[in-house]
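Try this one yourself first.
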């Protein structure tokens, strides 16, 4: 192989490998941002949450209700911090196009609490969302999050799965669900709990 051929081969390999390297960097950066966002949201502190969201952030829930960053932060402030709640986000896929990243992520959350039967139960949710992140001079910022599905479990048994487009049941106390003008939080299981 001539020296010129070696240079062209090296340049070609660089062109092939550079996008894969950039994708890996974007994925790890976004995974780190999800962890920062999880910790900020658990704190309920708007000053920690807002810098991770794009100025035009929009959250869309399964009932197709939307909320801004300020509405999200105000809603979180009303929910007490649960020290027993565990949450983990897994990035399933990332597609980077310039300064935008389309992400499919799964969040698994669980806690233990007393059910209506008076017994302690392990409750969990597994939620899938399609998120859009934008690159800024401050790093990746979450621009949109669109819920795709949520599965609720009690003691490891699936109680209900709701997918985007399905009718979303009204909350047990009338405080959640589409059309009532309030934030839809995590659905509560129904039945003997």
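Now uncover the answer:
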């Amino acid at each position: 192989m001539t020296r010129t051929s070696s240079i062209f081969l090296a340049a070609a390999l660089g062109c092939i490998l550079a996008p894969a390297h950039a994708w890996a960097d974007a994925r790890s950066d976004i995974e780190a941002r999800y962890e920062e966002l999880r910790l900020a949201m658990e704190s309920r502190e708007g000053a920690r949450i807002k810098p991770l969201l794009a100025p035009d952030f929009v959250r869309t829930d399964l009932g197709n209700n939307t909320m801004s960053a300020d509405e999200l932060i105000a809603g979180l402030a009303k929910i007490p911090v649960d020290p027993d709640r565990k949450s983990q986000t897994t990035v399933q896929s990332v597609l980077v196009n310039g300064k935008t990243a389309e992400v499919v992520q799964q969040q698994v959350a669980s806690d233990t609490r007393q059910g209506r039967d008076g017994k302690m139960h392990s409750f969990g949710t597994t939620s899938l969302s399609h998120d859009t992140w934008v690159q800024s001079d401050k790093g990746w910022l979450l621009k949109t999050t669109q819920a795709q599905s949520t599965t609720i479990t009690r003691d490891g048994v699936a109680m209900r799965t709701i997918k985007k487009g399905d009718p979303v049941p009204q909350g047990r106390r009338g405080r959640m669900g589409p059309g009532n003008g309030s934030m839809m939080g995590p659905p509560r299981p129904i039945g003997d709990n």
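Discussion: Helices lie at 3-43, 46-49, 69-77. The domain at 3-163 is CATH 3.10.450.50 (Nuclear Transport Factor 2; Chain: A,).
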